[in-house]
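Dear colleague,

Following up on Tuesday's group meeting, I ran the structure prediction for the two-component complex that the binding team flagged. I've pasted the input sequences exactly as they went in, so you can double-check that nothing got truncated or mislabelled along the way. The C-alpha cells for the whole assembly follow below. Feel free to forward this to whoever is handling the docking comparison.

Inputs:
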Amino acid sequence: MPSAIVQNVKKHYREQKRTTEALKEISLEIKSGEFVSVIGPNGSGKSTLFSLLLGIIKPDSGKVILEPNNFRLGFVFQNYRDSLMPWATVLENLLLPLEESHLTLQEKQKLVQELLAKFGLEKFADSYVHQISGGMSQLVSLARSLIVNPEFLLLDEPFSALDYQRSVKMQEMLANFCEEKKMTTFMISHDIDDAIYLSDKIIVLSGRPGTIKEVIHNTLPRPRNFKIRLSDDFDKLREKLLRIIESNEIAL
Amino acid sequence: MKLLYKIFGVAVVIVLWQVIFASGLVNPLFLPSPISVAQKLVELLTNAVFLADIFNTLLRTLFGFSIAIVLGVPLGILMGYSEKIYNMFEFLIDFFRSIPATAMIPLFTLMFGIGDFSKILLIAFVSLLIIAFNTMYGVKNGKKLRRITGELFGLHGWKLFTKIIFPESLPYIFVGLRVAISSAFVVVVVSEMFIGTASGLGHRIIDAQLVYDSTLMYSAILMAGVLGYAINKIFVLLESKVVQWSGK
C-alpha cells in the first residue's frame, strides 16, 4: 500500500491583489496502511492539503512524496455533487472509474451491484443525481471511491450530508473495509467522533495559515464497532482532542 | 388551470381586436376582422401554394441551420479547448454576432446573388456565430472539478472529451441551438421579402402588403408566428429531454 510524506510544504493562493497563506511549513507522514484524519477550523488549509495529496495542485515550496508512483486511487471531494456526472445515472457514475480498467463489462457490473447493495442504493441505480437527495449523492460519491478497490483513499468530509444513523453505519462499513483491505486512508473531518472512530492518527491543524498543532496517535483496538464509541478510552481521547481544539485560535 | 389562463389571455386580445374592428374606428385595410383572418388562415392551410411557402421557408431554415451546426459546434469546441484558436476567433465572432443579422442581407445578396444559396448561407452564417459562441462557453465554463475527477480516473484526450467535457457543454450548446434557430427563422422570413424569391412566408407577407390584401398579410404573419413559436417549443422540449439535468 502507498505511503505519503509531506515535507515542509508551503502553499498560498493569490486572487486579484489578495494573497492568502493556506499552509505554512507543514510536514506529516501517512504510513502504508494507516488511516490518518485531519481536523481543524475553517481556513486551516485542510482541503489544500487534500488537493496536494491528490496531486491536483503543487506546493509553493517543499515536497509531497507518494510511494510507489502508481496505485489505485479513490477519492471523495467535499463538493461531492460537482464531482458526480449529472448526465449519468447512479449506475453509470459508479462505472466511470472503471472506464480504463481491463475488467469485462460483466465483472464491472457485478462490482457495481455489490456496492449498490452495500450502500443501500439499489433502487436508485437508474436515477440521475438531481433526482436523489444530497445525502444519497454523497453515498454515491463514497461508493464510487471504493469501486476501484483503492490502495490510497482520500476523503474530504465524506459523511457531512448524511444523517447521524447512516453516518455511523457508513463509518462502520468504511472501518471494516479499511481493516480488511489495509489501504492507506487520509480523511478530513469536522467531527471528532468520526475521526476517533476511524483513525490510527489524528492531526489537529491550527487556524489560518495552517500549521500542525498536534498529532494524536489513536491506539483504540481494532476491529472497531459501535461499542467502542461508548468506551472510556474513546471518551478520554475525545476530551483530549476537545481541549486541543478549544485552545485553537479561530481564523477569521 | 395554467392553460385556462393562457386561453383567456388570447381570448381577451381577440375580443379587443373584434371590438376595435366593429367600432369602425380603424380602416379595415389596416385592421381586418379576426373572423376574416381566421377564415383566410383555414382556407390557406388547404392551399398548395401557401403550403409550399411554409415548406420552402422551413427548408431554407433547416438547410442553413444544419450547416451551422456542422461547422459551429466543432469550431466552438476548438475555441473552448485552445487558447490560441480562442484568441484568433473570439473577437471576430463576437463582432459579427453584434451586427444585426438582417443588415447582412444586402451584402449576402451582392456576394451570392438573389437565390436560395444566398439565403441559406446567411442563415448558416448567423446561426453559426451563435452556436459556436455558446459551445465555446460550454467547453470553457464546465465544472473544473468534473474535469479533474475524470482525469483522476485516468481519462485523457478523446475519452475525457466524450465522457466529461462534451456532455458538460451540452446545456450551453442547446441554449445556442435554441437562440440560433429563432434568429435563423427571423433572417429567413426577412430575406424572403427581398427580390428574387418566388415562394416563402416572407414573400407571401410582402406580396400581400403590396396588393393591399391585408387579410392575407395578417394570416401569413400569424402563420409565421405559429411556426416560430412551434420551432422554439420543439427546441425547449428537445432540451428538456436531452439535457434533462440542466439547471438542476
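The helical segments of chain A are 46-54, 80-83, 90-95, 105-118, 134-146, 164-181, 192-198, 232-246.

Cheers,
M.
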